[in-house]
Design brief:
Helices cover 10% and strands 32% of the residues. With 124 residues, the protein is mainly β. It has one domain: Metal Binding Protein, Guanine Nucleotide Exchange Factor, Chain A. The mean pLDDT is 94.
Length: 124
């Protein structure tokens, strides 16, 4: 990811999330309680990441999805920051930080816990 090019199109808050691997405060994100039909794309490169069909209300305070748009939409990596062991989720195209994935989704699925500031939305 060419961080200098991406930084030019992001707000300071979006830079903190997408490049510096920050986390937006719970229950503050634009897409937390958002259920329109369409596709969520990467804020930095417009790659398709998730559809509204996989979005669910986890009660966590962040947009949650059970599966990515495709098996090539996101990548996973170990994240041991803040004394926790988590799995980080990144855009597979540009490497932007999206959030984390957990194994406590509905019907024994995963829960992709994603920062709203890392996403844009394209309605159907």
């Amino acid at each position: 990811m060419d961080k200098s090019l991406i930084k030019n199109k992001l707000t300071n808050e979006e830079i903190e999330i997408c490049i510096n691997k920050g986390t937006e405060p719970a229950f503050t994100g634009k897409y937390n309680n958002f259920y329109e039909q369409g596709t969520f794309i990467c804020k930095c490169c417009d790659q398709k990441l998730f559809t509204s069909l996989s979005k669910f209300n986890s009660g966590s305070g962040w947009p949650s999805f059970s599966i990515p748009f495709s098996n090539k939409s996101v990548t996973h990596s170990e994240d041991n920051s803040y004394g926790m062991k988590r799995i980080e989720v990144n855009c597979s195209n540009c490497g932007s930080h999206l959030g984390h994935v957990f194994d406590d989704g509905p019907n024994n699925s995963l829960r992709y816990c994603i920062n709203s500031l890392s996403l844009n939305f394209i309605p159907e």
